Amino acid sequence: MISFDAVPVLYAAPVITLVFLGLAIWARSARVHRALAWSDDMGAVARETGRGGVIALGVTALLVSAALAGPRFGRRTVTTETKALTMVLAVDISRSMLAEDVVPSRLGRAQRESRRLIQDLRGDRIGLIAYAGRSFILSPLTVDDGALQLLVDGLAPDLASAGGTELAVALDQGRQLLLAGPGVADRVLVLFTDGEAHDSLANIVAAAQRLRRDGIHLLVVAEGGSAPVRIPLRDLNGVLTGYQEDLGGNVVQTRRRDDVLTAVVDAARGALVPAGLGDQSGAVRDLVEGFKRVPQATTTAVQDVSRAWIFLLAAVVVLLLQTYTRRTAALAGMAFLLLAPKPALGQTSPSVADRAWRDSLFSVAADLYEQQVLSQQGGDTAWLNLGTAALAIGDTARANPALMRAAESLDPELRFRALFNLGLLSLQLAEVDEANRQTYLDEARRHYREALLLRPRDEDTKWNYELAAQPVPPQDGQGQQPPPNPGAQGDPAPDPQTGLTREQAEQILDSMLAEERDTLDKINRRRAQPRDAMRRKNW
């Protein structure tokens, strides 16, 4: 059965057709009268030609009107082939996640990292769970990353019908959702939480052990700080209205529970992504990179498929036939349309700012990129371009905030370039500021470490990371990652005469990373003394 998206347009189709018929008849009549004004023979010829044009225009108007009404009928089967991993994101939406000991809040950061992860793992089958005092499934396993992004954006404590945090229930529901999916690919549960819970540690550990028994990989993403903080309460406009209180009227203090997080990770033999890591989504993506993925086909049946193209195609055929039967003017017009040279596709002229960058006019390019940022054009790319151009001229006041903004991009390529240039900026500041030299070197190592999570095998990043560990920074302007629009590639930072070859630096770097992993494993193996029960809470 046929249906229409815009029924009023369908009703108006006869009226539109009559209007076009009237205009076509009037135009033909005017043409005949003008021909008669020259001679009777010319008028006779004008009457004989173009009789079918009126009918052709009327039929075309009817077909186009029907297409605009959005006809739908029939059924179509769509098969999508993906090489997918099976993953479930479980996000804590209890009120303790509103604490603002991280920017913008624990929940806000979990949402940001979830969005990045969904975008970076596009094509994998991902489900979404939100939990507080109860756990509920927001999305089953799906490859629709757009729908998942919308659901993540809407996460808030008000979605939960019960306060507190039931970690064991969330772990069990994530396990059930993963086991319901195909078992060929590896199954991964990513848990975003601050570790505060009101169920017993024994139940949480038992749920984590069930994950290990069923072969499910658990990745715990820690949120929040270890120092106690208050939980702010804000209205719809973001204005602070007070702080969360318990049943006794006392202001609640919340902190990240490393003992609970470590116990869960140890029981499941999973991995803990530290709260202090700047790019948590990059760490998760790096961890799942080696997991097993399998090709799979997803078949969906689409009912009432849009068929407007059929009516439009019929209208084009009618017009072409009418044009083909006309005399020289119409044929010449058709030949011009078919034979006229087409502009080259995919080639766009570079912007004025990009040309300035390519001409090494870095100061001019920085000003032009800043204009793009102020006019909200170019998105995260404009921020990266501004920071890179400012870095090239040594303008740290503009380079640092612009690159920090670009480092929050959902695009992994933009994030990598911004982090690389932030590390280079810190190295340059360490060279000129002897008093804060060690602080800047620590910042450079942190930025390069996050960049390595995005590109573990990037040679330039490894080299500069090792240089940041040495007391002598690289020379000015070397190793700079350029903005993606101009497309210029930066050179690796040169050896500042430390006496190290690249191979020696690689060995030192590998040993440092291995030492960091060993330290993290030792921390994860520390299990706090289990408690029989935890104090129940409603935040």
How far the N terminus sits from the C terminus, by CA atoms, comes to 53 Å
Shape: extended
Largest beta sheet: strand ordering: 6-5-4-7-8-13
State Rg: 32 Å
Structural class: alpha/beta
CATH topology of the largest domain: Rossmann fold
Give the name of the CATH architecture of the largest domain.
Answer: 3-Layer(aba) Sandwich
Tell me how many strands there are: 14
Domain module count: 3
Give the fraction of residues assigned to helices: 40-55%
Q: What is the name of the CATH class of the largest domain? A: Alpha Beta
**Fraction in beta strands:** 5-15%
Uncertain residue ranges: 343-349, 472-479, 486-499, 526-536
Describe the structure concisely for a colleague.
With 539 residues, the chain is an alpha/beta fold. Helix content is 51%, strand content 14%.
Description:
The protein folds into three domains: 3-73 and 307-335, no CATH class; 80-297, 3-Layer(aba) Sandwich (Rossmann fold); 352-500, Serine Threonine Protein Phosphatase 5, Tetratricopeptide repeat (Alpha Horseshoe), CATH 1.25.40. The protein contains 19 helices and 14 strands. The protein has helices spanning 7-38, 40-48, 51-68, 106-120, 145-153, 167-179, 201-213, 258-268, 280-288, 308-325, 328-339, 352-358, 362-374, 379-392, 396-406, 412-432, 437-454, 459-468, 502-525, and strands at 3-4, 71-72, 75-84, 86-92, 125-131, 135-142, 187-193, 216-222, 229-230, 232-234, 240-243, 253-254, 271-273, 294-303. A hairpin with a 5-residue loop joins strand 10 (232-234) and strand 11. Helix 7 packs parallel to helix 8. It is extended and about 100 Å long. Mean pLDDT is 79; it is low at 343-349, 472-479, 486-499 and 526-536.
